[in-house]
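ok, trying the design again with the full structure, not the truncated one.
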């Protein structure tokens, strides 16, 4: 019974996540092969866009893997994957502009980014120990220890921090992509057609954050369903 309910909660957001990730890879595979008209690599575009935004203290470094590009607000470092940094593709322009969007948020003190950074430790704790607490509490309860319910509630409270993190990630990501679109147009780095391509990559990536939120919410609802179904 518990297992069936668990699958009922978790499978729809999982399917949505798989679909969103497949959209990201197909958009990236397509537009990482389309050369941009200015012939700018991601690394060159990063210099142009950092300058455009007056971000002189942000360093650019490389990072391993594919689609691992990110901005590190603590170190003020923009890390680009090899394909994005070296190839003059349409996808690279979109991805670099998005990450620089995060650097601009950082400089501007954009509130959702600050809240998100502050939530990192609690969210890590919640996603690691929330689950453990809920199941430990469940086992205690099944063996007749009434305080097992309190342990479950503590686990749910911990896990709620992870849900909050996924929620606050949405405005951070959508805002970075909007900033990316604006700076690509304002600097004239992309043609109208390239703008559409870069935008498609960004929209697909944003969907994965929606999927992550839905997964976290489904998990939370399942925990609530479990604990509310029990009697003191
Ligand atoms: Zn982002």
């Amino acid at each position: 019974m518990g297992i069936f309910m668990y699958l009922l909660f978790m499978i729809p957001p999982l399917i949505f996540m798989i679909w969103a990730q497949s959209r990201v890879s197909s958009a990236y595979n397509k537009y990482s092969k389309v050369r941009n008209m200015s012939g700018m690599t991601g690394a060159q575009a990063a210099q142009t866009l950092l300058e455009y935004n007056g971000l002189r203290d942000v360093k650019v470094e490389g990072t391993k893997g594919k689609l691992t590009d990110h901005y590190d607000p603590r170190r003020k470092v923009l890390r680009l994957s090899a394909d994005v940094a070296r190839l003059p593709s349409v996808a690279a322009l979109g991805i670099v502009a998005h990450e620089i969007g995060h650097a601009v948020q950082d400089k501007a003190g954009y509130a959702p980014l600050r809240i998100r950074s502050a939530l990192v430790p609690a969210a890590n704790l919640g996603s690691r120990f929330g689950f453990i607490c809920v199941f430990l509490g469940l086992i205690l309860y099944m063996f007749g220890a009434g305080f097992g319910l309190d342990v479950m509630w503590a686990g749910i409270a911990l896990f709620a921090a992870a849900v909050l993190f996924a929620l606050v990630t949405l405005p951070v990501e959508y805002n970075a992509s909007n900033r990316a679109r604006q700076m690509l147009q304002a600097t004239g780095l992309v043609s109208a057609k390239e703008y559409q391509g870069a935008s498609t990559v960004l929209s697909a990536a944003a969907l994965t954050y929606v999927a992550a939120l839905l997964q976290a919410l489904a998990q939370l609802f399942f925990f609530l369903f479990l604990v509310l179904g029990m009697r003191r």
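Keeping the full-length input from now on. Residues 148-187 form the longest helix (40 residues).
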